[in-house]
Amino acid sequence: MDIMRMILFHDGTTIGAFHKPLGKSIESFSLRGSSVKSAPTVVNCLILEPNGNCFTLIDAAALATGKLQRFTSASCPSVYVSMLGEVLRFRNMYFHQNIYAHQHHLTKEQLKWRNAALPTQIRWRCGGFKAASIKIDTGMYLFQSMDGIAQVTLCDTGSMFEATFLVPVAMHNDTTRFPVTLMKQRFYRDLIPESWLYPATVLIQLRMAYIIRGYTMKMSLNNDTENKPSPELIQEAKYYLEQWQKHTKNPELKGDDGQPLWRFKKAKQVWILRWMYRADVVNKALFSIVLEYLGGMQGTARDRVLREAQVVIEATKDSENQTTEAEQTLEQKLQRRKMKRAFQIAKALA
Asked: Does the model's pTM come out above 0.70?
């Protein structure tokens, strides 16, 4: 059977819908057929209860007679084992409580044996991390437990986690060895389960440390007192942004030469992105236009500017001290203004 749709409810109830074509119509095999009729299909709906121990099957017979069939997962009829296995995998991957695993639904390859029971708690390393060593070749960030029974990965965008770990498997008969299987769970940054909170927090912090360490944008994060650009370049950037603002309000405006009033220039945009954090280069009035300009950016360019703003926030926040406004040097004041502008940019692009 092919999966049509899976639905997971908040309490753990899971619904899986499956369909299977009964056969192909003869027209589908004939090149002379004027039209191809879709083959009839059989649809089964499997409703798994919150704890995963039982399920209800709704098929054509149930709809015809009005009688539903309810089975225990451990004694599932063989004809429904593949469907139940798919529903259980989906439930266990996205429902982070009461994981259910039984030998009846696992293949020989999925079932593993241990001479000792799994530990009741997973041991994670505390401290002594290296940001460079935690990023793997695929671009993801990996954190493994000390006992080797679990690991958590964070995707390169920093939004989704995947935990892989061993869980005990229920059996029909008692054995001297302990059956286990490898389970996967996925969760997002704003919905981290309590059981994975520590490794997920470590990965988030190490990812940010890796970004800050490997940051290669042209603008220097630590040297805000470098030479300012010439007044001519500042004036050109101001003119470019003002013309863009007029063009945005009225795209039909033309210049004296009959050409559009504003045209995109990559060199100007690069210059603006480099110097927009410097209050002594881009004044407050001009920065307000820059925020409007950034709001119109799309795609990877927008994501890159947002990521750079987040890096600036982290870098300047760590270097900020508790001195009063009157005691601060010019460099410290520029750092504070840079962080404030980074917050404004991140808010405009979020």
From this structure: no
